[in-house]
Write a structure and sequence with these properties.
elongated
């Protein structure tokens, strides 16, 4: 999952508002302890769900855009000739078992010499998917760069955008996103397993003691 800048800013504001309203509830002397817990639960559920909705929409947009770019950079978007589509599928099948960058580079050079664009694209796509992990990440990166350097200006623009999306979905970015979006449950709700039922009033919070009264 990767958040775009607009979604990131919206969630950041929601988190700030959430913590401010939590403070308002805690400082409201008109609320009993039970009323406070109920209000805190409602706040948590409301903001949790709104943040989730933004993340889900951002992720759907991210996946759609990434899929389009992958098709433009490595595939045969818009192809109507069945033979062209089959050639691309065959190339992808052939490169699926390539284990090392050296193997990929040798096959890429052969495809370049023979003008086999389908194979070149399939190898580049495989290298792109392998470049971020394992001990050969840098070598896979070079295979992908060899392909990118031969593309026209339009496709290089797509490659640059695809690379930005890839970086936005890195482990570090996902960790930062998780920290941002993971609003904490108020400590007053510790011990309540189903916070949604607390928010809706279906969980009995018990009879207030004198100390619970407002």
């Amino acid at each position: 999952m990767a958040l775009d800048d607009t979604s990131f800013a919206r969630i950041k504001k929601l988190v700030t508002d959430y913590h401010a309203k939590i403070g308002d509830v805690r400082n409201d002397d008109n609320l009993s302890a039970t009323g406070q817990r109920r209000a805190l639960a409602k706040l948590h559920v409301t903001y949790r769900d709104e943040i989730k909705g933004i993340r889900d929409n951002a992720n759907a947009a991210y996946q759609d855009r990434k899929g389009y770019l992958m098709g433009e950079v490595f595939g045969v978007h818009g192809a109507t000739n069945p033979a062209e589509i089959m050639a691309m599928r065959d190339a992808m099948t052939r490169v699926a078992d390539i284990a090392t960058p050296d193997q990929a580079r040798r096959l890429f050079q052969q495809a370049h010499l023979t003008g086999d664009e389908y194979m070149r694209r399939a190898i580049a796509a495989h290298a792109f998917s392998q470049r971020s992990g394992g001990p050969f990440g840098g070598a896979w990166e070079q295979v992908f760069t060899d392909y990118a350097g031969t593309q026209d200006e339009r496709r290089q623009g797509h490659i640059a955008e695809l690379d930005q999306l890839h970086q936005a979905d890195s482990k570090r970015a996902r960790f930062q996103e998780q920290i941002l979006c993971g609003i904490s449950r108020p400590t007053e709700l510790d011990g309540y397993g189903d916070i949604d039922s607390v928010a809706t009033g279906t969980t009995d919070l018990g009879i207030e003691t004198e100390g619970d009264a407002a």
